[in-house]
Design a protein that fits this description.
- The longest helix is centred in the middle third of the chain and has 20 residues, at 105-124.
- The chain is 43% helix and 14% strand.
- The protein has helices spanning 15-24, 41-46, 73-87, 105-124, 146-157, 177-183, 187-194, 210-213, 216-222, 228-236, 252-262, 268-280; strands at residues 4-8, 29-31, 56-61, 92-96, 131-134, 164-170, 198-202, 244-247.
- By secondary structure, the protein is an alpha/beta fold.
- It has an eight-stranded parallel β-barrel, surrounded by six helices.
- The chain is built from twelve helices and eight strands.
């Protein structure tokens, strides 16, 4: 089954406009954070969400609007309380870039355990749907593995009945390691899927930079007759064990193009060829 397209609000200027575009197009997921849109993202979403009661919302705990980072339990609790007050719902709360909390791997894992314990309290009380980790480099830097996150969640819950339900990581031609690993039946996406955890790909266009970096030859190799924007989604859509691809756009035309491309992922043999060409270059 193809991955679905979700709205990522990180680089969106008018969050409410982008949300309406995505929701009218039928997106099942909106991903946000308290620090997005200079701290306005939650307030802008709150004006739109009541019109679409079926959408699921993933948000985060870790950064404040000034860019300060903490995953200390008291901060996670405070930020999640504020999120619930602002949004009225949180189907998934990601611990945001936990690798930022310590360069010491043991300390980092203790920090994650504390954050998970705080979020387990909210999930156990039925106030959030579950929690997870949204990371930029945690998996590629080997700061943690899915198995280690599951073990930390079990420790936080006091049993294997934990509420770790999502992982988010960048997947694109620029950040291709999770994709390459998944093709070989390995890596965090596959391990998360095997553990029953929903997988999210962030930055499929690498912050909007990727289309400008793609040559006509590369685009044609990915999908003959396509364009750089659509080709990026044709490719990411072919990634195994991927449930949701997040994109930031307020344009219905861009949204529809990305949705159509995800629904027509390129064949695995062509994906391998593209990755081989890039690695050789």
């Amino acid at each position: 089954m193809s991955a679905v397209l979700g709205l990522g609000t990180y680089r969106v200027r008018a969050v409410s406009d982008a949300a309406r575009t995505a929701l009218l197009a039928g997106t099942p997921w909106i991903d946000t954070a308290p620090n997005y849109a200079y701290g306005r993202a939650h307030r802008e979403l709150a004006a739109v969400l009541p019109e679409y009661p079926g959408v699921r919302v993933a948000t985060k705990a870790g950064f404040d609007p000034q860019g300060r980072h903490s995953i200390a339990p008291e901060f996670v609790r405070s930020q999640t309380e504020q999120t619930l007050a602002d949004l009225g719902q949180a189907d998934l709360v990601f611990v945001h870039n936990p690798e930022r909390s310590s360069y010491d791997r043991g300390q980092l894992h203790r920090n994650v355990l504390g954050a998970f314990a705080a979020l387990e309290e909210f999930a156990h009380a039925g106030r959030i749907g579950g929690y997870g980790v949204a990371t930029w480099s945690g998996f590629t830097s080997r700061a943690f593995t899915v198995a280690e996150l599951v073990a930390l969640a079990s420790a936080a819950a006091g049993s294997q009945s934990h509420r770790l339900t999502g992982v988010q990581m960048p997947v694109s031609l620029v950040m291709a390691e999770p994709l390459t690993q998944a093709l070989d039946g390995d890596g965090p996406l596959v391990h998360a899927r095997e553990a029953g955890i929903t997988t999210f790909a962030s930055a499929p266009l690498h912050g909007g930079e990727l289309p400008a970096l793609m040559t006509p030859e590369l685009v044609n190799l990915i999908q003959p007759g396509s364009n750089p924007y659509a080709a990026a989604f044709h490719l990411v859509g072919a990634c195994p064990a991927l449930d949701v691809v997040l994109t930031s756009t307020s344009s219905r035309a861009h949204w529809d193009d990305a949705t159509a491309a995800l629904a027509r992922p390129i064949p695995e043999d062509r994906l391998r060829k593209v990755l081989d060409v890039l690695s050789a270059g």
